[in-house]
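Technical note accompanying the year-one report. For the benefit of new consortium partners, we illustrate the data format agreed upon in the data management plan: each record pairs a sequence with a structure-token string. No post-processing was applied to the example shown here.
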Amino acid sequence: MSSATETYHQHLSVSYDYPVHFTRDVFNPSNPLLSNTLDRLKEGRRHRVQVFIDSGVVESWPDIGERVRAYADAYAATIELVCDPETVPGGERAKNSRVAAERVMESIADHHLCRQSFVLAIGGGSALDIIGLAATLVHRGLRQIRIPTTVLAQDDSGVGVKNGIDAYGVKNFAGTFAPPFGVLIDPSFLKTLDDRYWFGGLGEAFKVALIKDADFFTYLCARADLLRQRDEATIEEVVRRSAILHLDHIRNGGDPFEFGAARPLDFGHWSAHRLEVMSGYELGHGCAVAIGVALDSFYAQATGLISTTDFDAIVRALKQVGLAVWSTLLERTDPDGILSVLRGLEEFREHLGGELHITLPGPIGQAVEINHMDPAIVVQGIQALKAHA
């Protein structure tokens, strides 16, 4: 018997394609977009669809289930609802458990969806994560269509390729990469958001502008007062530009499923994720990201990547749109006297899968990767943000 080693190298190249539509009144029977999206492969059949809706959406739009049913009736040649729309808990706390995702999977099993069936997820980022994770685990992946309903879900998470839940005290510990079948963005849903979910999503817009598009950052600064007033035309433009920047990075960044360690779109997130956990998820993701962006922007200024003028402009604009740049959580210490937020660096390194990679702006509109953060400078940043509070 030969002891020689034989190796066969397998190479696969898989192409993904999904549309992200910007529309209005998505469930108005005069708008065929949802039906057309379900039928975009022209398979010549009715499509079995199960609908899950964020509890927050149901609270703000009590007739949303009726609207979905009426739409399905109007397009009965294309859409077969397998059951009435079901409600899924929303908010980050709902992600901090497997219960909601398991209930979604159980319901999918009860209604015998197959890999060619559709899960229609309507809601904010947390609900989309829960529903999306369940849909990707059943039969190793059902077709998902997302209708994001918060600013953060529309301008960032809802257009991406991730699903996940929090576990073991770690943000997004369990999750999958699975591109959606399609995304439909309808600004009508933003009208009923409370301020926390409206302004919180702006944190992600600032994040992507600072590392990808200086002109977009200038736009955000110039229209900060309009954003504070919840001007509809302005937020629609912000959502569109932010979503496209996120999509461009996923497509052109060379690592859509994040096999590598660098995560440019996680600028500001090492501290944001830690602050969310420390707050018991009272602090929303977008609001935590705003603080994280401000903190890392100070680090960029302290290390010469951006100017003091740039840092001041970043903090001023974040505050002007209604986002806090400070939390008392930043000063909380562990029993050993170490700032609790600093533990986020090690958690982030572990999440990345090896060497620490932190993205900073340098200059505004461009990203710089560093592999070490000086805790002393972080502490200086915390004190600087406290002075700006």
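Partners are asked to follow this layout when depositing records. The longest helix spans residues 232-252.
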